[in-house]
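Why does residue order matter? Because the sequence determines the fold. Keep that principle in mind as you read this record.
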Amino acid sequence: MGAADIVPGVSGGTMAFIFGIYEELINSIKTIGQRNFIDAVLHLRIREAFSLINWTFLIPLGLGVLTAIFALSGLLEYFLTHQPVYLWSFFFGLIIASVIVIAGHIKRWSWGLVGAVLLGTVSTYLLVSLVPAQTPETWWFYLLTGALASAAMILPGISGAYILVMLGKYETVLSAVNQRDFLTLGLIAVGAAIGLVTFAQILSWLFKRYHDYTVAVLIGLLLGSLRKVWPWKVDVSWLTDETGHYILEHGERITIEQINVLPDLSTPAGVMQVLVALALAGLGIGAVLLIERVAGRSDSGQTAVSTETSSASG
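Structure:
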């Protein structure tokens, strides 16, 4: 999830869905915002607070996300700069396979569910076309940025990193991670915690009341996000200051708008690039299907053990 959250256009929520932990994640985060947990924390009843949350799930997951962000941010920044086609191809394959896997969670399709998929697809397709804005460099906006990015982070198909791009804060945050700017990161983290807990309440309610429709909309979000992760792009707009001069990051202009294009098949190098991109997309598809198969076996094994335990107790 941490590795996915670093890349604009790919969501950590997508990874949670692939691994079969999405609803557990939402319900676990939801608990943090409930009154009895907050009351226990404010009165320093630490043991009671830990008994109320799914800490054996959240703590390892959170550590894994943070580890990936700090360990992989430099590597992914390199590939985004020097080999974007190959990186996007891999994630394109991940998302295609994710749609197939998640669609299998709906046992009975209807026209209403198809409409929900279309709604999610169109919404995300339009969202990822928005041009990033120039935004304030103030503490309160970093809090707001963290809240909006974290809410998107747990939605499959809507990338928290892309929200940072839209708000004009992606390069700032990535640089803060690489330079260990803990003040900026702390503000983002506080905002993210607020956004996560708040949005988890809404998602948990939707899953309880409208489970299949919620999953259908999430599938649409994934399909719509394919516009953002299409591997072949051309830069058409760059970030500028008030005087119209380009703002540079590591000597390079910061891109704020791209258009998708077809790959160049007129040269051997272009053909080779397409073949490698297809191979990486296939690798992404294979990785998701393998993860789903392993997760399915794990769930079956746990169910069997639970059944045997119940029989033995009886």
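The chain has a mean pLDDT of 80.
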